[in-house]
Design goal:
This protein is an alpha/beta fold. The chain has two domains: about 210 residues, no CATH class; about 375 residues, 3-Layer(aba) Sandwich (Rossmann fold), CATH 3.40.50.1820. It is about 30% helix and about 20% strand.
Length: about 675
């Protein structure tokens, strides 16, 4: 990467200085410009202008291109160094002072350290892209979430460019609705899907009523600065500006430009896949074992759908240093996960009464619970109606990392961002736990005594599928991709790109107040940058990473899989924008008749064999168009009230049982909760 080599830039600066000195010397040498036969030359005073060196406000460990914040613009090659040992030839290099300091650490002289970040070989492909200026940008005529196509037109104020191919990338732009300082408001450049891994990207911004920083103006003027990190990118900046010009971007009014290189898939999923391979070896073909701790028959007082609830533990290879949070994965010096011990992980398996009444077995479905829930409560209660209606048994365990048991760690992360590394590591262990759950109950625990009634095993685990709701819908694609025993998943009200949608979710309100405390990160731009930094860590488990493998798999490790993504329009908990991202990243079509046909997603008629996304509209109030906090009140209705709708569930059942997505919308995917709900459900 020429932009990371300061050699040519330094040599150029030295050459400019040496040339000036040589000219002065030649002019001052006595007699060298006259002969003995000529009249003496009257020396005139000669003024020589030395190259201007522009003084730039700078801090070691920061990107000094933008004085507003140490880490702006973000992401940036300013935080990459050359490393021939990596797939990209680069490595992240955050200094001790790069990440914002929390109030809880400011008096101790310490900063948050996240060791795993500096092992990455590039920036997150799912990153948020952002910068800021000294004045509030004017976005008149700029692409927003409803006019994305404008970003591809010549002359658009912002350009996102694949430098490797010269391709312009569709995007939209917004200012930070949560900003507390108009003069330093962050400008977000929102991507439509995950970017490509191991790829160089460049951003150009022109107009918007803003002015360049001193450092960037010096680059535009061809002047040398006194900032080493700016000088190190002089050459790469010249290449970028030329590429922007060739793409049709208005470089005559360029106010900021920068580039970044995304991490390779090997860097993002390599350690997790290493852990997966080791775990599969230890699990074998049938899993290790399970222990039943309790069996409850008819445990619910208000339903006739319950028959048997089996509670216990199953054995999982553990890579966390210890099982309870906060906890990190044990690794070697290269970041490769190391086996620690076999751990006992809780499970809950529920058999509905319909299977006992018919004395027949039903398919086993792994269920993924909602935000900050656990693997027991939802399977035991909320999902019982679905099991009874569609004659399936369900099993679940916690989505650790975002479960109720992780609350303390998450709140600790608000005051010290390094604790989100612990949370991220628990999410990776979660994938192993979920994989082991399917393998164990498809194998060694598929025929335990507790599954029997009147001589019949009521659970058919020969073909295990997945269904997740909310958080379970978000991480369901990752769980399905990771598990070799699951190849089909019904994802309710899910999405991807956690850092992009988190501030648009009502669930964020649980943490927002704690994040702004003096002991945490009271500066808004600090919080915005840190959420983006967290995406580095979340990438290993984010659906956006694993959905790219849906159609073709990944090497010899991950096989293809299919998903049905069922979305409720105007969902305030999992915004539709995140659902759109997941569809684009997976390359799945949207069912014709859906009440949203997002930009860049192909439309297909049913029946569909494979993956698809379907948008159902229940007539709920529209959500804000910005990253401002959505209104609470009835904001959860769109998210929750789609659950019992008969025609929606019929589509989900068909898909889980047959792999076919049948059009149950009758040409228009709408519903009315007050009239269409499945009133015959006994829950």
């Amino acid at each position: 990467m020429s932009g990371l080599d300061n050699g040519p830039t330094c040599r150029a600066a030295m050459n400019r200085q040496l040339t000036a000195l040589l000219l002065i010397s030649m002019l001052l040498l006595p007699g060298c410009l006259q002969s003995a036969e000529t009249e003496p030359i009257v020396e005139e005073e000669i003024q020589v202008t030395l190259p201007t060196i522009v003084a730039v406000e700078q801090t070691t460990g920061c990107d000094n291109l933008n004085p507003i914040h140490c880490m702006l613009p973000f992401p940036s090659d300013a935080f990459l160094i050359e490393d021939n040992s990596t797939m990209t030839g680069l490595r992240v290099n955050y200094a001790e002072n790069t990440l914002p300091v929390s109030g809880s650490l400011s008096n101790s002289g310490e900063n948050a350290e996240i060791e795993s970040l500096n092992l990455m070989d590039g920036m997150s492909p799912s990153t948020q892209i952002m910068t800021a200026f000294s004045t509030l940008p004017n976005l008149t005529g700029v692409a927003d979430q409803y006019t994305v196509g404008l970003s591809m037109e010549t002359g658009h104020a912002t350009t996102l460019l694949n430098i490797d191919t010269g391709e312009k990338i569709a995007h939209w732009v917004e200012t930070d609705a949560r900003a507390d300082d108009a003069e330093a408001t962050i400008l977000f450049i929102r991507t439509m899907r995950s970017l490509e891994p191991n790829t160089a990207y460049g951003i150009g911004i022109s107009g918007l009523g803003v002015t360049p920083s001193v450092a960037f103006q010096a680059i535009l003027d061809g002047l040398q600065t006194d900032a080493p990190d700016v000088e190190a990118r002089q050459n790469s900046m010249a290449v970028l500006i030329n590429a922007l010009n060739e793409s049709g971007h208005d470089i005559a009014n360029l106010n900021e430009a920068w580039q970044f290189h995304t991490a390779s898939l090997d860097s993002i999923v390599g350690p997790t896949l290493s852990m997966r391979a080791d775990a599969l070896d230890r699990l074998g073909d049938d899993g290790i074992g399970c222990t039943v701790e309790d069996v409850d028959d008819d445990w619910m007082d208000d339903t006739d759908a319950d028959f048997r609830r089996i509670i216990g533990t199953y054995t999982v290879p553990q890579y966390l240093e210890w099982q309870n949070p906060p906890s990190k994965i044990s690794t070697d010096a290269n970041g490769t996960p190391q086996f620690v011990e076999n751990a006992e992980i809780p499970f809950t398996l529920v058999i509905p009464k319909i299977l006992a009444d018919n004395n027949e077995s039903g398919p086993l479905v792994v269920f993924g619970h909602g935000f900050l829930g656990n693997g027991r409560s939802t399977v035991s209660t909320a999902a019982i109606g679905w099991m009874q209606e569609y004659e399936v048994a369900m099993i679940g365990t916690s989505i650790s990392g975002w479960s109720g048991s992780d609350m303390d760690t998450i709140f600790m992360g608000l005051a010290n961002i390094s604790y989100f590394e612990h949370q991220s590591d628990r999410l990776q262990q979660m994938l192993v736990n979920q994989m082991a759950l399917a393998r164990t109950f498809k194998g060694v625990c598929s025929d335990i005594t507790e599954l029997y009634n009147n001589g019949t095993n009521l659970v058919d685990s020969s073909d295990v599928h997945y269904m997740g709701y909310s958080l379970g819908g978000i991480y369901g694609a990752s769980i399905t991709a990771f598990s070799p025993d699951i190849d089909r998943a019904a994802l309710w009200v899910g999405g991807s790109g956690f850092s992009t949608f988190i501030e648009r979710s009502t669930n964020y309100a649980t943490f927002a107040d704690g994040f702004v405390l003096p002991q945490a990160y009271p500066e808004r731009n600090d919080r915005a940058v840190l959420i983006a930094v967290c995406q580095h860590m979340w990438d290993a488990t984010d659906a956006e990473t694993w959905l790219r493998f849906a159609e073709n798999g990944y090497g010899d490790e991950i096989g293809p899989f299919n998903v049905l993504s069922t979305i409720s329009v105007n969902d305030a908990q999992v915004p539709g924008l995140s659902s759109d991202r997941s569809a684009r990243t997976a390359g799945m079509p949207v069912l014709n008749g859906s009440m949203r046909l997002p930009y860049g997603i192909d439309v297909a008629d049913g029946p569909i064999t494979g993956s698809a996304i379907v948008y159902w509209d229940g007539g709920y109030d529209a959500m804000p168009d910005t990253n401002a906090a959505p209104p609470l009140g009835d904001a959860g209705l769109a998210h929750n009230e789609i659950a019992p709708i008969i025609q929606v569930n019929s589509m989900v059942e068909d898909f889980l049982m047959t792999g076919i997505i049948n059009d149950t919308c009758n040409g228009s995917c709408t519903f009315d909760y007050n009239t269409d709900q499945a009133e015959d459900w006994d829950n």
